[in-house]
Amino acid sequence: MGGMSAQIPIKDNLQAHEIAMGKVRADKLREVKNGHDGTWVAHPFLNNIALGVFNQYMLGPNQVCSILVDLFTDGDLSLTTRSTQYHVRREDVNVVAADLVNPNVSGKITSGGVYANVSAALAYAAAWLGGNGCIPLNHLMEDAATAEIARVQLWQWVKAGARTRDTGDIISKEYVSGIIDQVAKELGNQKGVWKTDDIYLVVRYLKEQIGRQWPGEFLTSDLMDELAKKDGVDVKWPKSAL
């Protein structure tokens, strides 16, 4: 199974819409050629794009073809073996143990990346407290996974004292807190699925998280008590379920 293309239709900008749909097609093409049998999309409008690519390149019901071979002795079935043929074996990929623990990755930390992480974590967590499981943000469908990655990455950058490559700023607690305040103000002025009170609850949470020795277990687990309070549920019950 492939992954989810986070792009969603863009109604008010045809050029941006076509670029986004092109990214979806390219993502689905990569997946089907890598041997995936299926895939996810973030919006029903994208179903035909995904189906079109997979119907063109996946020649059967799946890309792992199992063939039963029955061996007979004197007319009696004595043995049945299963031979599995892989249409896409990816023998060009050679992963060794050292690759799994190599911390050196391509890319660089930028001020825009810090802003994007704050925006994703803050907007999603505030919307989640209002009962939303996923939200459209900057023409992408975002969920708890994105927000959690953003939250922990911000903590990690502060912990390591990383710098932004484009501006040279040290990513300190104070630096990130300033961006959190900026994003909170912007979200408060936007029409979205979040409430102002929830935004500032998450502001306090994120500021506390980025300065901790270790981050909380998981964003939604950390905020479960607040959700329980909203629902009028004794906080001990969600904790016992977790």
Word description of this protein:
Helix content is 50%, strand content 13%. The chain starts with a strand and ends with a helix. Residues 68-73 and 77-83 have low confidence and may be disordered. With 242 residues, it is α+β, with helices and mostly antiparallel strands. Helix 6 packs antiparallel against helix 7. The chain is built from ten helices and six strands. The longest helix has 20 residues, at 14-33. It has helices at 14-33, 47-57, 97-100, 111-129, 144-160, 173-188, 196-210, 219-222, 224-231, 236-241, and strands at residues 4-5, 40-41, 64-73, 76-86, 135-137, 140-142.
Q: What's this, in brief?
A:
This protein is an alpha+beta fold and 242 residues long. It has helices spanning 14-33, 47-57, 97-100, 111-129, 144-160, 173-188, 196-210, 219-222, 224-231, 236-241, and strands at residues 4-5, 40-41, 64-73, 76-86, 135-137, 140-142.
